[in-house]
Amino acid sequence: MAASTGPTVECVLRELHILSSTYYRWRRAEQEPCERRRRDVELTEEIREIHAASGGIYGSPRVHAALKREDVHVGRKRVERLMREDGLAGVSPRRKGFTRRDPKATLAPDLVNRDFTAPAPNRLWVTDLTMISTSEGPLWLSAIRDAFSRRVVAWETSARADADLVLTTLEYALASREVEPGKLIHHADHGCQYTSIKLTTRLMRAGVEASMGSVGDSYDNALAENLWMLIKTEGLRGRAFTTRAEANLALFEYIDGFVRHEALYDVRG
């Protein structure tokens, strides 16, 4: 009979004050994973595929939304946990303030207070400016987004970030929607483009209430900031543009070809 080479399992368990039944239950769990653990493995594979298909861009909110569209029923917290355990994360651009305040301008009150929800279409529009770099110089992008549907109502570009750019965007938005006077809020920051006489006069004539958050505060205009994140991390990520016309075409292909026709699922969290 061979000599014993070490203590038995029972001896070790007694020394550690662990019940043998507990030990063997652990062993069975390792050999036969429970249903939840098996499902975690399956979900992680699906999450990896979605994350890879996005070019490594999607974070847990957008991965969760993609799973939901595929009729995969899973909680958002579970998606967050599985992505964290698998070392997967999304991409977010750095925020740069592109609007400057006119210290002499009269400011509109903040009618939104960071609550970017609306009971119906054309009740709350949010707007902002951002810059797209090209070899010719900056291309400025202005857009208006509806808080109810989270879709882009109108957008416009220009080589100049002036009041004419934001006014043109507003004109396109008003022409494309049936706006009831006194029912719509137009929310922007304190940038001089939005406090200009041209824009404030047009808002007043259309019966639209002006609202303003603070300059450079992404939380005060989070819905517009989220749009820039989508455009820059999905539509334009990794692309270098020689001309403004080239950048403008890329924006058209993404905003009109994807954002307007794809449901802009909620990624607020």
Report the helical percentage. Answer: 40-55%
Strand-and-helix sequence, N→C?
HHHHHEEEHEHEHH
Shape: elongated
CATH architecture field of the largest domain: 2-Layer Sandwich
Q: How far apart are the first and last residues' alpha carbons, in Å?
A: 66 Å
Largest sheet: 5 strands, mixed
Radius of gyration of CA atoms, rounded to a whole number: 26 Å
User: Which strands sit side by side, in order, in the main sheet?
Assistant: 3-2-1-4-5
Uncertain runs with pLDDT below 50, 5 residues or more? 1-6, 261-269
Q: How big a fraction of the residues is strand? A: 5-15%
Q: List the domain count as a whole number.
A: 2
What is the average per-residue confidence, as pLDDT, rounded to a whole number?
A: 81
Question: Structural class, judged by helices and strands?
Answer: alpha/beta
Q: What top-tier CATH class of the largest domain fits best?
A: Alpha Beta
- Count every beta strand, where a strand is a DSSP E run of 2 or more residues: 5
SSE inventory with pairings:
Blueprint: H1 9-16, H2 20-31, H3 35-53, H4 60-69, H5 76-85, E1 124-132, E2 139-146, E3 152-158, H6 163-176, E4 185-188, H7 197-206, E5 209-212, H8 222-235, H9 244-259
Parallel strand pairs: 1-4, 4-5
Antiparallel strand pairs: 1-2, 2-3
